[in-house]
Amino acid sequence: MIETPAVVVDRDVLERNVARTAEAVAARGLALRPHVKTHKIPEIAALQLAAGAVGITVATIGEAEVFADRGAADVFIAYPLWLSEAKAARLRALRDRASVAVGVDSADAARHLGAAVPGLEVLVEVDSGHHRSGVHPGAVVPIAQAARDAGLAVVGAFTFPGHSYGPDAAAVAARGERDALVAAGEALRTAGFDVRVLSGGSTPSLAATEDGGATEVRPGVYVFGDAQQWELGHVDPSDIALTVLATVVSVHDDRVILDAGSKILGADRAAWATGHGRLLEHPGARITALSEHHATVTGVPLGLGDVVRVVPNHVCNVVNLVDEVLVVRRGEVEGRWAVAARGRNS
Fold first, then answer.
1. Is there a domain that residue 303 lies in?
2. Which residue, of 223, 255, 286, is where some domain finishes?
């Protein structure tokens, strides 16, 4: 018997998601470089690489170290790093055991990076509409020139279409991604750079990725799915591989309470989301309130002791809240996977 609350991964669904996405991306002539910050689990990265991924994407040096130590040979740190002396030493050591590229979005950062880790491969980050880090595509050349002058190897450009996470937003984000990457690539080539990689992609925009822009894509959530992707229509409930097993501990006329709160489900709730999470077998139910150890559910008649599978809103946060996940196949616990990169935030 599984004690609740517990994070559970259905291996059959996981493997199907990994294989299906790898095949779909390959059929488009694109390279797949999944973002492993979603799962932080080397065993899942191994499945992705075996299915054809060209490498992995991470957010931090710490994540890169964990996965390189477990056999990942090609790592892109999709982040505009500003290195301390300690981080520079770690990045130099990391490069001794894996092929490493990093993001850059300013001339000053490029010069700082080149002084610390000469010869490192970099991609210039462009803003395709998400308005986080990244520069206008028209501003990539001075950054690339500064990087080259600092001894870095400029191999292309990348973007994150994060504004795809919203109702009816995927197609608009995919078009913005294509336009930004095309413009950045043309500008870099005109300036004499050998553009090998134009990197984009997110889970919600993946199917809408337009031809002629990205050469590789970096989705992450696709391996598990979550309530956001379900609500946006990008995944079917049958494709959700990770759930939080929870028990009904209190019953009232208009609600039931589960033993899973924000400390295992995470607290993310987009403005457009209809709840703090959903129940996999009860699609009409919603989690209407969330405390640290309580989830309030409406819209379903459950009794004390009933066990349900909760689909969290944002699966990336959930995995980072636990030390391990239970792996099940056809309802039977097959093993446990450590969340090896948990807490590696720098």
1. yes
2. 223
